[in-house]
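Reminder to self: tokens first, then the designed residues, so the page reads top to bottom the way the pipeline ran.
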């Protein structure tokens, strides 16, 4: 009878040691995951704080003082303009405001 009791004691001791090892591994995993999560949060906080110091907070656009801003629109050009004829590579005088339905010489 003493031998059965001793075997049960050995089995219980082995089971307790396995559970203790499992708990130790679980606590190590939790500790490591919390450490990694905390490191990630710390990096985001550092980036946010650094961004507040290095970003220009002025809402006004930067415009040089010596630049003249045009206030009037130039009138449309109605003078003849030299252009290249797509067919013969020769210079043709044309008017910018000419109607599109007219046929130029040599076309047609």
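Designed residues (108 positions):
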């Amino acid at each position: 009878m003493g031998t059965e009791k001793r075997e049960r004691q050995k089995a219980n001791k082995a089971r307790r040691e396995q559970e203790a090892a499992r708990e130790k591994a679980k606590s190590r995993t939790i500790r490591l995951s919390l450490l990694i999560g905390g490191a990630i949060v710390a990096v985001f906080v550092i980036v946010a704080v650094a961004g507040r110091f290095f970003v220009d907070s002025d809402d006004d656009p930067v415009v040089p003082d010596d630049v003249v801003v045009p206030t009037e629109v130039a009138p449309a050009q109605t003078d003849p303009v030299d252009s290249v004829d797509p067919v013969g590579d020769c210079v043709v005088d044309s008017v910018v405001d000419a109607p599109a339905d007219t046929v130029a010489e040599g076309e047609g």
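Strands lie at 80-84, 91-95.
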